[in-house]
């Protein structure tokens, strides 16, 4: 049996599915990739002293994390030195909030998420309204009598931006309270970096090209991949000879027995109505409308040498009200949502800024030069008393503007609750009249618990490859 299989997308899920199928002898395989590279939202590029990750950056946790299991055999991990739970919060006038004060307030917010988490299960509202309610009540207790309200709410607003970047939500009032619990954290170190090699390492391991790219069993996926192929239509009732027919925007057509679709949720949302013939069944349309993808972007600045003190890990930004009102009048007012600049491991001269949500999408519309200038404005404003030189190089990401992604990663929103949908609905294959899967769905958005992660994406690629392998194993035994 040699079924024709087309995989749409060469991101983590597509690579995982393809390598698993090829290992099992399914080589009548084509990958259609809209970009000119393999990796999808894993995008490791040369920068500074070595590389930076424009997309996925950390391996989040160890136990039950397939990326950790793949990489730990080769000793490729290191613990990130900038620990985000130990933020030094700096006000827009250059003053630092005293460490014990900021730790007390951040500790209070973390504790709401830890000790009251179980209450979210039956909660009917957003993560934001849940945290705000608890925060207000706890601030009234004697333990926090010495805390200034203005400082408390400034720290809460900073944490809000930080939490949005983890969820990829525009606001924590968009994030579902109970849906927040759908995500499972893997035990172990949640911020493992790939030393100086970047997240691309996991793709090389999947392709059996690490540590030796020329190993006998290496899988050169490039040989199976057609680059710059944007899919225009998937006809999933094509006919008896070809169960599925995939047409690209350049009018090339690929006939297949099975398609594994790993298109990002952002692109599905934008194009699902024209992408599938016939129309998707209601349960699939509901899932695409109800699951949510957001935007998180990075701003990399390389300097000739560090201008910061040894041991300094970064700068978290807290706006004083008057400064905030001023910045909101500026053309680059999106910069109020850059919540910090942090050191990058194995990059002695590089800082990375973070921005998410609506203002991240606005930032993408500005020119590189405007964004670079805004970053310098922020660094000089918040690092008073420190001479901040011009960077020698600047690079930023634009995951939303890219028509092949339209966002960074997915989360469970209030809309997800409203439409009563789930990742498992998105993962249901489209079948023909005989019940044979003709279009299958993979990618982080289709994982019930590890959505938004590479390990989730890899698991879904394996899941869909195994679906086909099991199907043909059963046929062989009939």
The major beta sheet can be summarized as: 6 strands, mixed
| Rg, alpha carbons | 23 Å
Number of helices: 14
Considering DSSP H and I runs of 4 or more, what fraction of the residues is helical?
25-40%
Spatial shape: globular
* Strand content bin: 15-25%
Low-confidence stretches: none
Determine the structural class based on helices, strands and strand pairing: alpha/beta
Strand order of the largest sheet: 8-2-1-12-22-21
Give the number of DSSP strands. 22
Euclidean distance between termini CA atoms? 13 Å
What is the residue-averaged pLDDT?
A: 95
Write the layout of secondary structure elements.
Layout: E1 5-8, H1 12-23, E2 29-32, E3 44-47, E4 50-53, H2 66-72, E5 78-79, E6 89-91, H3 99-115, H4 127-139, H5 149-167, E7 192-193, H6 200-206, E8 225-226, E9 231-235, E10 244-248, E11 253-256, E12 258-261, H7 265-275, E13 276-277, H8 282-290, E14 292-294, E15 296-302, E16 314-318, H9 321-327, E17 338-344, E18 347-356, H10 358-365, H11 368-382, E19 393-396, E20 409-411, H12 414-418, H13 423-427, E21 430-431, E22 437-441, H14 454-476
Parallel strand pairs: 1-2, 1-12, 2-8, 6-16, 9-13, 12-22
Antiparallel strand pairs: 3-4, 5-7, 9-10, 10-11, 14-20, 15-18, 15-19, 16-17, 17-18, 21-22
């Amino acid at each position: 049996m040699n079924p024709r299989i087309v995989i749409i997308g060469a991101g983590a899920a597509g690579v995982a599915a393809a390598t698993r199928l090829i290992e099992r002898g399914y080589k009548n395989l084509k990958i259609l990739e809209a970009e000119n590279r393999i990796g999808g939202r894993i995008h490791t590029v040369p920068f500074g002293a070595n590389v930076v990750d424009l997309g996925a950056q950390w391996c989040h946790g160890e136990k039950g994390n397939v990326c950790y299991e793949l990489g730990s055999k080769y000793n490729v991990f290191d613990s990130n030195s900038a620990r985000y739970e130990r933020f030094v919060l700096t006000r827009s006038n250059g003053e630092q909030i005293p460490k014990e004060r900021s730790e007390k307030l951040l500790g209070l917010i973390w504790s709401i998420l830890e000790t009251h988490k179980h209450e979210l299960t039956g909660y009917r509202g957003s993560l934001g309204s849940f945290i705000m309610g608890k925060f207000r009540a706890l601030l009234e207790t004697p333990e926090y009598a010495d805390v200034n309200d203005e400082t408390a709410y400034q720290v809460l607003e900073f944490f809000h931006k930080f939490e949005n970047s983890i969820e990829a939500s525009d606001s924590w009032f968009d994030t579902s309270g109970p849906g927040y619990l759908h995500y499972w954290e893997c035990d172990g170190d949640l911020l493992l970096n790939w030393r100086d090699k970047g997240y691309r390492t996991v793709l090389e391991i999947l392709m059996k090209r690490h540590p030796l790219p020329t190993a006998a069993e290496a899988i050169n996926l490039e040989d199976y991949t057609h680059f710059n192929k944007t899919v225009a239509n998937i006809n999933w009732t094509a006919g008896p000879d070809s169960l599925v027919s995939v047409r690209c925007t350049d009018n090339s057509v690929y006939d297949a027995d099975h398609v594994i679709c790993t298109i990002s949720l952002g692109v599905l949302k934008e194009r699902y109505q024209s992408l599938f013939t016939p129309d998707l069944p209601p349960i699939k349309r509901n899932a695409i409308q109800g699951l949510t993808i957001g935007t998180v972007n990075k701003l990399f600045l390389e300097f000739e040498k560090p201008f910061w003190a040894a041991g300094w890990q970064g700068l978290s930004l807290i706006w004083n009200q008057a400064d905030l009102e001023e910045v909101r009048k500026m053309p680059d007012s999106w910069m109020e949502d850059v919540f910090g600049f942090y050191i990058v491991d194995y990059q002695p001269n590089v800082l990375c800024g973070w921005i998410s949500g609506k203002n991240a999408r606005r930032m993408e519309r500005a020119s590189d030069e405007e964004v670079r200038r805004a970053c310098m404005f922020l660094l000089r404003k918040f690092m008073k008393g420190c001479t901040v030189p011009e960077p020698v190089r600047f690079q930023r990401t634009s995951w939303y503007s890219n028509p092949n992604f339209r966002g960074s990663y997915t989360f469970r929103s209030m809309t997800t609750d409203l439409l009563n949908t789930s990742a498992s609905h998105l993962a249901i294959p489209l079948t023909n009249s005989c019940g044979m899967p003709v279009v299958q769905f993979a990618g982080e958005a289709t994982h019930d618990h590890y959505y938004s992660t590479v390990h989730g994406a890899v698991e879904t690629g394996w899941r869909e490859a195994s679906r086909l392998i099991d199907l043909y194993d059963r046929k062989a035994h009939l």
